[in-house]
Request: fold
Amino acid sequence: MCRMIMAHGRFDSAQILEAARAMSCGESADHDGPIKSHPNGWGCLWLDAGEIRTLHGTGPFADALPGIDVDRLRSRFLAVHVRHATLSKNQGMAFSHPLWRNSGGHQWYMMHNGFLPTIYRHLGLAASRFDSEEYLHYLVDAITPADFTRDYLCAKMAQVEPGGSAGNAIFVTRDKAWAWQWYPHDTPWPDYFTMHFQQQEDCTLIASEPVVIPGSVGNWRRMNNHELYEIPFRE
Reply:
């Protein structure tokens, strides 16, 4: 289980990192889920002159934040992910998001919030190693970004066997990013698994929780389940 935030447009990267820290420590955890603290790894993704850059770490994000060079992350797009490992064995750098995969001549990155323990069956695997990695594989193999639509995602998720909690995710390629809001009808904590959206004049914010960001204007709205929000980087 995880918390995520992404920003596109004009924003202060330090404030986005601080919002991620607050979520990781449970300071903005006004939801129905039992998990408040997310101390099992973290990752950042941003754009640098049109190229995707990433930074990963293990342990609590609050411990790592003072050592992160914020100036390096100044960009028109930034996403941050903080983890609470659903399975204790899935901890360490290899399990820190964003995950990435090459497919169809494109490099895909993903940050996931949820647990999908049955996805491996759709890949012909005998057992699951890491559900988020299998989720990325399941969704992006043999497609291009042009294929990555709400109809496509809804159809793919309708085939997933029951047993998971959510598939909320941020996907990023060099040309585009998406925020995908999805959980099954029987998810145990619908509030915890609902992302929030805020549109400002010059910035779009999407986060797992309606965090306080100094200077931000407008209200957060809950994303609709099965909503896909798309951000093109190249007009």
Q: What stands out?
A: Residues 13-24 form the longest helix (12 residues). The chain has a mean pLDDT of 93. The longest strand covers residues 2-9.
